[in-house]
Amino acid sequence: MEEKVSSLSEKLKRHGLEFFKDINFKLEAEIGRSNLLLGDILELEEGSVVEVKKLSGEPIDLSLEGVVFAKAEVIIIKDRIFVRITEILEETE
Q: CB-based contacts of 54: which residues, under 8 Å, 6+ apart?
């Protein structure tokens, strides 16, 4: 009879990443950031353009649950935005 696995740590040791295969995680692609005055924010309306602090063609950060794990480039195809992973970062970065 197989032992009962009691903790997450033990499950990871026994099953590796397979344990997480069907769990949803939050993936974010940060195209840029901007600091705005409240007055400027209140003036925003549909169609407004906000400048972000990122140069065109500069790699963007991809994060998983808030931790940056990769760099990517933005790709636009038929009015849809995609990101292409260009680099997977080492754990120390």
A: 31, 32, 33, 60
Global pTM reads 0.60
Q: Is 65 exposed, middle or buried (0-12, 13-18, 19+ CB in 10 A)?
A: exposed
Q: How many CB atoms lie within 10 A of CB 33?
A: 8
5 pLDDT above the threshold of 70: no
Specify the pLDDT at position 14. Answer: 74
Rounded to an integer, what distance in angstroms lies between the CA atom of residue 61 and that of residue 56?
14
Whether residue 10 has pLDDT greater than 60: yes
Chain-centroid distance, C-alpha 85 = 11
Domains parsed from the chain with CATH numbers = 24-88 (2.30.330.10)
